[in-house]
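*** Fold description ***
***
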Amino acid sequence: MARTFAQLPGYDIQARIGRGAGAVIYSAREYLTRREVSIKHVVRHGPEDDRFLEQAEIEYDVATKLDHPALRKCFDIVRIRRWLKTAELYLVMEWVDGVRLEDHRPTAVERMLPVFLEIADGLSAMHRFGYVHADMKPNNVLLLRNARGLKLIDFGQSCPIGHTKTRIQGTPDFMAPEQVLRQPLDQRTDVFNFGATMYWTTTGKWFKTLMNKGETGVKKIEIDLRSDNAPPNTINPKVPPPLSSLIMECCENNKADRPREMRDVRHRLELIQHMVHKRLGTHGGKPGGKDRDSRE
C-alpha cells in the first residue's frame, strides 16, 4: 500500500502544507527537542526529478552558510539511497508561520515599503555571505502572521557571486537578462529580480520579461529586449515618483545601469519611506500591516 504521508524517524509529521519544485512540504515536530519544523520531501521517480534533488541539496548547502533573521534556516538533510543513488531526500527547515507575498499583496504604499526594506536586508545579508538568491519573487517571500518581519525562502537556485550556470534557471516573469544568457550572476541579478517583485507589488501586474519561448528542435529561450513596461506610477498613481524610478532602474536590461549593491537600493527605499511618512504624518509599521491582517 502506497504511503500518503512522508515518514522520517525522529519527527512527528503532522500535515501536508504545500507543494513546489518537485517537492511536498509538511509541518512536523522533532521528537527530541519538540521543535516545530517544516520538512521538504523530494522523491526521485525518474531522471526528470534529479534537478529537484539537486535544488534541495543546494538549498541546504547555502542555507547552512547564512545567518540572518530574514533568511529561512535549514537544520538537516536526510538522504535515502537505493542502488547508490539518492531515491528520496528530506530537508528539515525552520518552521515559518507566514503567508506568501504573492497571496497577500499590500495595497497601500506605506505598507509595501517595510516589506521592501526587509527583503533588501535579507538579500544584502546573502550578498555579504557571498551568494546570489537568483530566484527572488513574491512566491519566495513569507510575511509572518503574528510577528514583525518576513522570511526569504527557497535557496535552491542560489549560487556564489560571480557563478555562471550551465543551464537557464529562474522564474520567467522575474529573470534578469544575464540569467537567460547564462552570464555570470552577481548582486545586480538579485537587484533585477527584486525590482520585478516591487513592480508586481506596486502595480498588481507582472513585469514584461525579455523572453520569448520557441521550438527549434530543442526548447530554447531567446532574448527579445523589452522597453515597453509602463512605469509603476502611471499604472498606480499612489506610487511616489522616486519609488517608480527606483523600480525601473532596478529592472534595467543592462546590469551596469542598475544600482550596484542592494544596500544602495535600501538607502533609497529608506529615503522614500521617510518622505511617505512625513506626508502622512506616520511612523511606519510592520510589513504588510493592517492591509495584510485584514485579509486573514
In short: The CA atoms of residues 167 and 275 lie 42 Å apart. The helical segments are 50-63, 109-128, 177-180, 187-203, 232-235, 241-250, 262-280, 289-293. The radius of gyration is 20 Å.
